[in-house]
């Protein structure tokens, strides 16, 4: 099919008929709605126009055509038609000697790629995604699909390199306009998410957008409170500030996580990374960290000193030095005991998580994980042999029972858990049951057989061993080594 036939014209059609057919199709194929269709239409028009001009019989009529007023690209200017009137013999007109060697094509438009990227970033920084989209649609340079693709990739590469402040809606408008928002555009999805978060946070942290940032944070702070918290994170790390704020690590960490949506690495470079890492570690309840131990030690020391000072102040009002000393020691001992309880809790948390992991999760020291409860029961027997009927001898089986029941409950088949609710309260029944069931009636002191107390943790441990017998870690590892 020839280009003229593609427009529905015959082989003898002139340029005037071609222009009419082109104008009719151009109404249905707009460059902003169908860029690829417009490119095909324009290419076919250029080929058809060249075919018309190669026909000598149609050249005089087309040269005298008055369609040079704003017609499509490739038409001869009116001055050229006036300078070369049609010849009497019907041959194609010759160009005057004065215009010989003159390029009559319209000058090529030079596209400033760096300038365009700078303008696009400046408009995106305003935060109006709709205005940015209209500005991109109105640029005639992007009727060329090749230029549009090159400009889009250059702009996105500059965004990755500079990461300027920009809301996520503007980044989405840029990606959609340049058809780079889908999975086949060649983006790394994780890198694109990091870029979007970083630019959105940098845009929100600008002073002009603090009100919008306050509206996003929950509970919503005032602008003054927000500025004070941001100044704390931007200030250099100092131990004096840590000691002064030892009571509030959880609050500071919650602010950081809310501000960054759980990605503190997205904060700009002006924020002190050491301080942010310290406050996050101090508030992390899933791990034993140096920052957390330091915060606990500061609180422990502060509670002990505060108790002693309070006791001295109360006794000083009674004007009794001896009583003041005893009261100060007593309140100080209370604070010290609270610190010991906190240390015990800190040690218990990782032990409980490590001991209660599912069997399909690899752990360190699998044999110790499996035999921890029997080892604690053996330790309890040894303590009872050295210190019979002491409170310390009862602490070890209580801890063993608690760990065994917690492990059995968490790893119990989920469909049978409603029938195993006794696991939750069983540790608190160890001592009463032991006193009621195992009391020697002939012993006025109410003694009982110590080994019988250990039946509770051993029963829970055996029940868990039975339910997990098919895929024990040690058995799986041994079978893998055998294979």
Automatic annotation (TrEMBL):
Composition bias, Low complexity:
74-94
Q: Where is this region: Disordered?
A: 57-94
Spell out where the chain crosses the membrane: 297-317, 329-347, 421-438, 450-467
Could you tell me the keywords of this UniProt record?
Answer: Membrane, Transmembrane, Transmembrane helix
Q: Where is the composition biased (Gly residues)?
A: 64-73
Q: What is this protein called?
A: J domain-containing protein
Biological source species: Fulvimonas soli
